[in-house]
Amino acid sequence: MAASSFSIHTEYIDLLQFLKATGIAATGGEAKAMVDEGLVRVNGEEESRRRRKLRLNDRVDIALDPPELWKIVAEKG
User: Fold this and answer.
1) Range 19-25 contact pairs with CB under 8 angstroms and sequence separation of 24 or more
2) Number of domains in the chain
3) Helix spans in 1-77 (H)
4) Element (H, E) at 6
5) What CATH number is given to the structural domain containing 9?
6) C-alpha dist (Å) from residue 77 to 8, 18, 74
7) How does residue 76 score in pLDDT terms, banded at 50, 70 and 90?
8) Chain mean position to CA 5
């Protein structure tokens, strides 16, 4: 599975903001539920912290059907 990229221009983005910004979750409540249900892994480990700070080169796996894989990259420009 090929990873999608998500560009950030700050030091980090928190996990809930990431889930909403990518469209994986439509609302904050949906994003919270995904984390609480254990559907999110960061760098290969299950993530239960809703406000986990995602930084450059972090890898986010979302257990959806089909699964989604994202990599945090620096914004170009």
Assistant:
1) 19/62, 22/70, 24/62, 24/64, 24/68
2) 1
3) 15-21, 28-36
4) strand 4-8
5) 3.10.290.10
6) 11, 21, 9
7) confident
8) 10
Residue type at position 42: V
Q: Decide: 16 and 51 in contact? Cβ < 8 Å.
A: yes
Domain with 63, as residue range(s), is 4-74
Angle at 72 between CA 70 and CA 73, to 5 degrees: 125
Tell me whether strands 59-62 and 68-74 are parallel, antiparallel or unpaired: antiparallel
2 — pLDDT class (breaks 50, 70, 90):
confident
Distance from the first to the final alpha carbon of the chain: 27
